[in-house]
Design brief:
311 residues; alpha/beta; Rossmann fold; 9-stranded mixed beta sheet; two-stranded antiparallel sheet; 11 helices; 11 strands; 40% helix; binds adenosine-5'-triphosphate; binds magnesium ion; binds zinc ion
Length: 311
């Protein structure tokens, strides 16, 4: 390098240094630094979720943990459309992990169509103190928070707008004392609206479970949910097919009520595991209707158990 070239390099460096001292840029840098410091402070105070899950949260969306929540794993449960039995699958997975001895909770993030409390026969009076509300315990000791137990009457329709509803989900995180949990399952409303988006952005999700039924355009729906999670850096733990088949009450033969399932092919294509193929079983519906959903044992979910235990 010649002396002139050296000098040109130094001049360039000085020029860059000068432009970085532009007062507007300096103020912007200071603002960004302050924002980062604030984010780090909040994150340092947060104790729920894995480090990996927390590090994925964009500083703009970070929300504070409740000081009385210590949650090891947060799992979102999503579906393409309503009526595939997502809430039932959420409750069934929660019951299974609880039965294995894990302290477990369910955040019913389906604010406008909450259906978790009914399956457990849970009613009313949420109590709290200055640190926030306590979740309600089901008879099999699953901790639940739902709009349904906060409303004056369970028939009150929730007619708020999307952003308000998404705010409730944040409150279900920050203002609820979840205690020590191994697993918190978040039952999302169907689709990819405000609530799933907020949950994906703000909660330290270890991953999501996608629930489908054979009636759905499975490949399209699974791919849509998969892409949304992918865009936000959230792992897809796998897919559960509900209403997969029926067993003949006489001979036990499997009947594919909705035709041949394509779930294996879709899961293979996306390289995600199938976490269970649940039969349509009248005793499941009966127990859920009677508020004792936890009485159903669902062996078809054992692949889900293996994946959750390995987190
Ligand atoms: N595999 C199944 N076999 C029998 N009954 C089922 C099964 N899955 C769900 N059900 C019944 O269907 C009812 C409705 O299920 P759920 O509340 O989970 O559906 P949903 O809330 O409409 O679904 P989503 O959460 O996707 O909107 C449950 O209470 C349960 O009784
Ligand atoms: Mg539901
Ligand atoms: Zn038969």
């Amino acid at each position: 390098m010649t002396e002139e070239e050296k000098q040109a390099k130094i001049d360039g460096a000085v020029e860059r240094l000068r432009s970085s001292q532009d007062p507007e840029k300096a103020a912007e840098a200071e603002r960004l630094n302050a924002e980062r410091a604030e984010h780090e402070q909040i994150m340092a105070g947060n104790t729920s979720g894995t480090d990996a899950a927390r590090s994925r949260i964009n500083p703009d969306f970070v929300i504070e943990d409740n000081p009385h929540s210590h949650i090891k794993h947060v799992i979102g449960v999503v579906s393409g459309k309503g009526g595939v039995g997502k809430s039932f699958v959420t409750a069934s997975i929660a019951n299974m992990m609880r039965a294995k001895g894990h302290p477990t909770g369910i955040m019913d993030a389906d604010i406008t169509g909450p259906s978790i409390p009914k399956m457990y026969g849970l009613h009313g009076e949420v109590i709290g103190n200055e640190f926030g509300s306590f979740p309600m315990s089901t008879d099999n000791d699953v901790e639940v928070m739902s709009m349904n137990v906060l409303l004056d009457t369970e028939e009150t329709p929730v007619i708020w707008r999307g952003p308000v509803i998404a705010g409730v989900v944040k409150q279900f995180w920050t203002d609820v004392q979840w205690g020590d949990l191994d697993y918190l399952f978040v039952d999302m409303p169907p689709g990819t609206g405000d609530v799933p988006l907020t949950a994906f952005q703000s909660l330290p999700l270890d991953g999501i479970v996608i629930v489908t039924s054979p009636q759905e355009l499975v490949s399209l729906i699974v791919k849509k949910a998969y892409n949304m999670a992918q865009m936000m850096g959230i792992p897809v733990l796998g897919v559960v097919e509900n209403y997969s088949y029926m067993s003949c009450p006489h001979c036990g033969e499997k009947i594919n009520v909705f035709g041949e399932s394509s779930i294996d092919a879709v899961a293979a294509e996306l390289d995600i595991p199938v976490l269970g193929k649940l039969p349509m079983d009248p005793t499941y519906a009966q127990n859920a209707d009677n508020g004792v959903c936890y009485l159903s044992e669902i062996p078809a979910l054992s692949p889900a158990e293996a994946v959750l235990e390995a987190l």
